[in-house]
Amino acid sequence: MPSVALTEWTSDRMFRLAQVDAQCAAVLALIPPNPVLLDESLRGYAMLLSAHFQGHASHFDARRPPELADVMRWTRKFS
Fold this sequence. Notes:
Oligomer: single chain
Number of domains: 1
Number of strands: 0
Distance between the termini: 30 Å
């Protein structure tokens, strides 16, 4: 039986990230490419990807070993 995090990843998160990936590819395909739009698209993609991994971190945080508490606190400072 797959975990809740894996089910959420395959049913929702992967689809949304694929849409943003397609948007970035479409910006690259413009003739001529628009560097400002590409930069903004890639920044948005990086933020969205970070948010998705933060979502996985919250699932992990509930089950984390005590020795990883400092790592999780450090991760939250930058999210």
